Amino acid sequence: MAPDHGSFGLGALICALMLICPAASIRPISDAHRSAALELFVPVDGLFPSLEETYHALRTFLILGVGETSEINRATCPVVLEKLKSPSSSPKGFYDALRVNSILGCQIGSETLEDVASQLRDLIKGADSLMDFYYSVIGLLHVKGQGVSAVLSDAQGVFHSIKALSQSDGRWRFDSNNAESSTHAAGIALEALAGVVSLADGEVDQSKIGIVKHDIVKLFDSIKSYDDGTLYFHEKHIDGSEYEGPLATTASVVRGVASFAAVVSGKLNIPGDKIFGIAKFLLTIGVPGISKDFFNQIDSLSYIENNRISIPLILSLPSTVLSLTTKDQLKVEVTTVFGSAAPPLTVNLVQTSTSEVKNTPTVENQELQFDQENNIHYLDIVPLKIDIGKYTLKFEISLHDPENLNIYATGGRMQYLVFLTGYVKVDNPQIGVLDTDGESSASLVKLDFSKLDKVSLVANHLQKMRLSFQLVTPLGHTFKPHQVYIKLRHEGRVEHIFQLESSARQYKIQLDFLALLEQIYYLSGRYEIELAIGDAAMENSFLHILGHIDLTLPDPPEKVSRPPPQSVDRYSRFGPKQEILHIFRTPEKRPPKELSFTFLGFTLLPLGGFLIGLLTLGVNLKGFPSSSLPALSSILFHAGIAATLLLYGLFWLKFDLFTTLKLLGLLGVFLVFTGHRTLSYLASTSTKTKTN
Amino acid sequence: MLTFRELEFKMAKSSTSDAQALFRSLRSAYAATPTNLKIIDLYVVYAITTAVIQVVYMGIVGSFPFNSFLAGVLSCVGTAVLAVCLRIQVNKENKEFKDLPPERAFADFVLCNLVLHLVVINFLG
């Protein structure tokens, strides 16, 4: 129908592909997360299904600063107390109860806690798997946090045992029997080692700590990345039963590394860009819908927020669509992952680039001004003389205090996609009808879009219709929008869409009706003319009815196609369809019933004749065996035959072949038995009479 | 000397009397057959008659459910054929089947009839 929709589709695809490289704007944790947390973690009468989930909920509420914990406190504290007092608790049980208690602060006697501490110390002595070490050490750490003294006597030994499970690539094994290493285990092990260092009564050997630092660097070598620069951890071997996704694995590593960095002296040799990439990964998840994922995201971000390696600073754009008409400002926020204030810094707009309008100069190296009150960096774009369109902006952050470079990670150059919109003017629109030789029969009429008067044109098939105009941006340049179409609608039903060609300065179309005769199905009459112009950067995209044109076309020749049937009502195609009348083969003529029944009677006559004949012959049943057993088998034999005939009757009436064959098989066996009995008896009696 | 007419009459009379004599001799010979063979013969006659009636019916009304017609006729003719086989095997004067006990022949007859009628009922539709 309309020419060349395909090229627009291809253009859109290319634009979409180019969109992958500039980042979608990431936002720090905001109130959307806070309200989602309250919706995801909902206790039933103050209780959560397990202590682990209770901890997830409480920690999330604590970090985000939301939630009402008094009812949870009242309902959960007894459970915690019971768990701590129970003599048969496993390390995991103590761990769950203690970490919930560290947030709730239940009233637990110091005796109970000391008892728990000594049990945990015993468990550590006898532990051999990574999880046992982890639960016991972290449990003991929480006990210490509640004021009871808990000191690990053989810290060196415990450190050594945990370290023994590590692999050369920086991963850890879960226990010595399991040969497969896991990244998730590495995070757990690092957290446990950090706990051991805090609980040690003396200094832990610095050389061992150095080796662990080295392991952490190797672990970071295995980090994976997506195209948009986010970094994450994932398992090398994915074991079906214990699969943890990238989020859980990354969260575990972040916790471990951050805890370890917090307790040891000296810096860890991890570049700030990697922490930035991980923070970006955690933020681009958005608001997760599963409570465990939500906890992992918020918990690991809280470790990143205050970590000792480098704190990432997130640059985010509150709005990516800026209007020239309302003189918007480009606004940029720089905060930590939780939206807290960043240290003093300047944001530089390094470069803007566009794929479309080529003659506007790209802006380079503009410094954004800082609004102290609202903590926003802004830039007025109107003085920059940028035209409307789609732009990729590159930003760079520079910190004022050079010391802060060691503490914060700025993330280098970041790209964002921004739309600049504005009002597009239609200049010099002209429409008219031309004769074949190109001369206008009437002069071209100037259209005025602000006034609503419509043009009335008349043409026959030898003439052409011409429409032309120019599109001008607010800055006075020629604009090429995505969609420029003209639609001719015949008497409200058949529509034809044509695309306008664009030259360097203007858009125009010349409809040659002689060439279009077949396309418009030779339909004469009044055609309504509509013009549609639209683009994402255009604030005044429109669909205007310009007027109408009365076309006089010759009669269609024989072979022309009819226009496709138009539905009267838009929804009529959902209504009931025309009924389909099936044509069956005319049934054969059957004879009248009386005739058929008469002949049925005739068919039964020979049977009567047969019986009469038998009687005439003097048939008797003297040969029927008289003694009981043969008589019984004879009777059963005849009954079997009768049953078979009955089965055949039922087969004709309703059974299928399979049932019949099944039953026939059974009857057949029965018949063989009884028949053999009967006939052998008869045979023996007949030989007896013969010999006698 | 006989005239041509008298000769004709005599020949006709003799042919009819020959036919009658033949018929009478057949009848008397047939009377000598054992009863069980007579029963079988009666059965065959019954089966064939039924088949003939069916054919006449088809001749009247046309062969629309042809499979039903064939099934009916096959049933009659098939059972007649099996009865004839039974007669051959049971007949004591038949030297070929001297050692075959008649009960065995009868068992075969019953079995074959059952199979035949299974096929017939399936084909009846």
From TrEMBL, chain B:
One of its GO terms (biological process) is protein N-linked glycosylation. Belongs to the DAD/OST2 family. Pathway: Protein modification; protein glycosylation. It is a multi-pass membrane protein. One of its GO terms (cellular component) is oligosaccharyltransferase complex. The chain crosses the membrane at residues 42-60, 66-86, 106-124. It is found in: Endoplasmic reticulum membrane. This is Dolichyl-diphosphooligosaccharide--protein glycosyltransferase subunit DAD1. It comes from the Eukaryota.
